[in-house]
Amino acid sequence: MHRIHPSNPLAPAATKYRSDIDGLRAIAVLAVVIFHGFPNFIGSGFIGVDIFFVISGFLISNIVLENLQNDTFSFVDFYSRRIKRIFPSLAVVLISCLVFGWFALLADELNQLGKHTAAGASFISNLVLWSEAGYFDNSAETKPLLHLWSLGIEEQFYIVWPLLLWLTWRSKFSLIFMIAIGATLSFVLSVKGVKVDPTATFYSPQTRFWELMVGSLLAWISAYSMNLNFLNRNNLPKERWLELVKKASNLSSNLGLLLLVYGFWKIEKSFSFPGQWALIPVLGAALIILGGPSAWVNRTILSNKLLVWVGLVSFPLYLWHWPILSYGRIIYNETPSVEFRLIAVCSSFLLAWLTLKIVEKPFRFGPMRNHVKVTILCGCIVVIGLAGFAISRSDLSTSHTYEQLLVKRKAFKQRFGFSDAWYKGKADWLFLGNSFERTVDKLELVTVPDSSMIDESNQNIINVAKKAAEFNTQVALLVGPNKSSVYSEYLPDDIIPSKKRYLNFFLDPLRQTPNLIVYDPTEDLIAFKKTEGILYWMTDTHWNNKGAFLAYQGFSKLLGTPSPMVDFINSTPRSGDLIGIAKLNNFPLHPEDNWDIVWKNTLSLTEQEIPDEQKSTMGSATIVTNKKPLSDKYIWVVGDSFTEALKPFINATFKEVRYLGHWHKLKDLPLALTQATRKPDMIIVIRVERSF
């Protein structure tokens, strides 16, 4: 057993219990729990997961490297220990979530919970959540097992890393070289990936493994640098040398603590993460661990009994806290009260302690034979995973309607049907449900935005308009109306739209903003639908080509710019995005809602991707050049999915159009404008009504 060498307090002990690491675990889990429960209190608490990754990489690699040194390493022993550590608490939480979800969730919500349960049981939650990410992904707060993505990353690391260490050891290749190369490659992928595809980079194992490998590097230092006397080239007296080493230990730990404090203060949810920003919590945690248990911070702060206790229950606490908060969000149909969240967090601590005492410890340290424990735990996880998979594939539309739920929702307006994601209107019209930005609540005006919400939503575009005015660049906002606002006659009788629109709380102050033109085509589209046919796809959330053109035509008149000459002919039936959301089979489709564009003039367009621009739900950033433009203006466009049907008309009008991605980039546009060598003549912002 490796212990701290008297001349090297910096080196972590390989197998000796370190209470300071449990204290560091406590810092990590408390940051995450507080961030989830009270995000306004600590908006960067999510970096606690990155601290966990470093700790896990350190501890796991320590075990493997020491056993390799002693020629006692066994894959069976390693994985049986992992199973006994992880499976008991995980099984209890997965079962609890499924049971409660059976009585509290609508059909499609329960289907998704079943899928996430199966993913959690097979440790691929990160990959499943990555595959779900997109324009119509439901809110993260309504996924009770969302937090298992990090467990997926860790378990995938546990599968790959021991094998790599073993192969490197057997081949007598340099362990430190292998670890350094692996960590560097993963980090480079993370830094590059976060600029192009931040969602993939967040969930992908290859862009996260470097964080665990930093912990592995610490383990290598522990195993192979047990004596720092070789650095004492001046042959200082032992007492003087030990004093210098002690100072270095404290310096390392203090710097680590300062980095964590800086990370918690500086990093925000809006940052491109992980990427280079993840270096702050990762290096902070690494330096604290490197400081060793004798460093002042480690022995005084992190070894505090209360922090150590929190660290000991950190794993079940992490598993319990999010499902409770998430179910609260689902039941209350909004962020729960502070009182509820306090109760939820306190309940999580209690459940974590009970889980550790009643479930985890008996399986880890109880008298039952090891192979029996492992068999029982593996069997339980397999059964839970299969149950989740079966639920995900089941038709629950008749058994889990709102009327049948035993756990009723609070302030919930869509009190019908078996889905909160969509609903069927009259005459084969489908509409987006309340789970997407509370569209039904806003339509009926059962919720009213306060001034802070309005200011927060409007501020970015106001900032753009102000900065653009300095360069004589016009800014214009085009709203994509919700289908329910234009075709309210096809809504179910249960839904009665308010005469006053939620949207206008935001547009009224924006209309007073200098250098900003605002166009809401709702009234124009309502008038046009009487003579121009169907302007939205009946099974989609968006306007069709004809509806988009009529909106663009009105927008162009307001801007004083030309619009292209086109005709429209009815096309073949089209299956819209609501068919996919609702998972409907053989639903009636109508050709009269789909229009093909007939151009009266020949277009000459070229399109190319903008290199190193971040992808969004709109796809890659692009530049479109028109050799036969109606206007010589150079345009920037930021928007959302309502932009897609407008693109042909924008491209046909202007000489050059730069599509920068989603309107979330508005916050970056003032700086982009300042730095641009060529300023745009106009910035067009396209934003769907429900996003306000």
From TrEMBL:
Single GO term (MF): hydrolase activity
Pathway assignment: Glycan biosynthesis; alginate biosynthesis
Keywords, in A-Z order: Acyltransferase, Alginate biosynthesis, Hydrolase, Membrane, Periplasm, Signal, Transferase, Transmembrane, Transmembrane helix
Acyltransferase domain boundaries: 20-355
GO biological process per UniProt: alginic acid biosynthetic process; lipopolysaccharide biosynthetic process
Domain of life of the source: Bacteria
InterPro entries, alphabetized: Acyl_transf_3_dom, Acyltransferase_3, ALGX/ALGJ_SGNH-like
Main localization category: periplasm
Gene Ontology, cellular component aspect: membrane; periplasmic space
Compartments (UniProt record): Periplasm
Spans traversing the lipid bilayer: 21-39, 45-65, 86-105, 146-166, 173-189, 209-227, 248-265, 277-297, 306-328, 340-359, 371-391
AlgX/AlgJ SGNH hydrolase-like domain sequence ranges: 424-594
A Pfam match: ALGX
Protein known as: Peptidoglycan/LPS O-acetylase OafA/YrhL, contains acyltransferase and SGNH-hydrolase domains
Originating species: Polynucleobacter kasalickyi
